[in-house]
Amino acid sequence: MAAPPQPSPAAPAPAAAAADAFRLGFVGAGNLAESIARGVAASGVLPASAIRTAPHRRPERGDAFASLGARILASNGQVVDDSDVIVISVKPQIVKQVLVELKPLLSEEKLLVSIAAGIKMKDLQDWSGQRRIIRVMPNTPSAVGQAASVMCLGEKATENDENRVRSLFSAIGKVWTAEEKYFDAVTGLSGSGPAYIFLAIEAMADGGVAAGLPRDLALGLAAQTVLGAATMVSQTGKHPGQLKDQVTSPAGTTIAGVHELEKGSFRGTLINAVVAATTRCRELSQS
């Protein structure tokens, strides 16, 4: 069995990034685009002056980019013209319209990066006329620098293109490279997954309240416990089952709780949730 793909290392230091300076443009200035821009600027992957976007229908979105030191240009066309890497960060339902409008301005000298959920590489190529494309699926923890992002490369994307995009998304979390055929399952797991964990944190906190804890203490403990457990899996390299066994003493409190979870089909329910979200993603991409 082949080894699973490994996430990227942390974002490079500013000195390393300076050797490959490029201009980064965002077509769409929403919250996810802002998270990427902030991470890129804060980590030193690029200076804020290398980032540009166009005015948004909501003025506060442009203000957020301007507060970083990014350049606000007059139109998406100017963003394309003045950028080496263009991130398509508009809502999925208007990606076709935007790419068709920008098609005359795009060339193979530009790298197109799409973070639009559910929009497949073939459609991106057809609408834009581009083959130098990288598709990326990040998730909402990008807002706190803890994204899980997966990318796939278009047929003319180069190794340098991959390295550039990896550096951008490493600034907001961890990055994996995978074939596009896995992207529906990526959506079902990491795209939708934060909601599953939010529910788990809420339920654990409710359990703490039911057991007599004050609400704020119960919620804080639940959130920190999930964070700590996830960090142990990520940093130790140990299988989650091994870590679970280490905290599960014979006839102790933890095994009593695990027994209840097993009676409620906890693992099976989570598996089914990921599969259901994956199936729904496939349905939406074919509609």
Describe this protein's structure.
- This protein is 52% helix and 12% strand.
- It is built from 13 helices and 8 strands.
- Helix 3 links the parallel strand 2 and strand 3.
- The radius of gyration is 21 Å and the shape is elongated.
- The protein has an 8-stranded mixed β-sheet, with helices on both faces.
- The chain has 287 residues and is of the alpha/beta class.
- It has helices at 14-18, 31-43, 59-68, 76-81, 95-102, 121-128, 159-170, 183-191, 193-210, 215-236, 240-246, 253-263, 266-286, and strands at residues 24-27, 51-53, 71-72, 85-88, 111-114, 133-137, 147-153, 173-177.
- 32% of the residues are buried.
- The longest helix is centred in the C-terminal third of the chain and has 22 residues, at 215-236.
- The protein has 2 domains: 14-183, Rossmann fold (3-Layer(aba) Sandwich); 191-286, Orthogonal Bundle (ProC C-terminal domain-like fold), CATH 1.10.3730.10.
- Helix 8 (183-191) packs across helix 13 (266-286) and helix 9 crosses helix 10 (215-236).
- It is found in: Cytoplasm.
- One of its GO terms (biological process) is L-proline biosynthetic process.
- Belongs to the pyrroline-5-carboxylate reductase family.
- Keywords: Amino-acid biosynthesis, Cytoplasm, NADP, Oxidoreductase, Proline biosynthesis.
- InterPro entries: 6-PGluconate_DH-like_C_sf, NAD(P)-bd_dom_sf, P5C_Rdtase_cat_N, P5CR-like_CS, P5CR_dimer, Pyrroline-COOH_reductase.
Proportion in β-strands: 5-15%
Number of helices: 13
Label the structural class: alpha/beta
Describe the sheet with the most strands: 8 strands, mixed
Computed Rg? 21 Å
Question: What is the name of the CATH class of the largest domain?
Answer: Alpha Beta
Please estimate the helix content: 40-55%
Report, as a whole number of angstroms, the end-to-end distance: 35 Å
EC number: 1.5.1.2
Catalytic activity: L-proline + NAD(+) = (S)-1-pyrroline-5-carboxylate + NADH + 2 H(+); L-proline + NADP(+) = (S)-1-pyrroline-5-carboxylate + NADPH + 2 H(+)
Subcellular location: Cytoplasm
GO biological process, one term: L-proline biosynthetic process
